[in-house]
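User: Please predict the structure of the protein below. I'd like the answer in structure-token form so I can feed it into my own downstream comparison script.

Assistant: Understood. Taking the following sequence of 122 residues as input:
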Amino acid sequence: MRGTLEILDLMMALFVFAGLANNTASGGDVLADFLVDKWPPMVRKGLDCFAAALGAAMYGLIAWGMYNQAIKAAKIGDMTPALLLPVAPFQFAVAAGALLLASVYLTRMLAINGTNTEGQTA
């Protein structure tokens, strides 16, 4: 059917980036912490903080790159080949989802820094 793959691609990008921030904020990530549990609390806290900072930076860069790409697509009027749907709104939505996820990681990093090694607020 004409345009089916285009619709699937656009919807997949929307659904993935729309759900990532919610999944991460609600603690739905898969954690393999069977080794980390045996490490000292200060090391675990440092690794958690590093992972959150890395996630914030990575998804911040994705948001920035996708936003720039969406601006370019909007300026030139980029459309999908078969259905002639504008691409920019989907790219802006992906950028927004990535930015939201970056903010979740940044919030997590700040929360980790505000607690002591026993998990209590400093």
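That's the full token string. Residues 41-114 form one domain.
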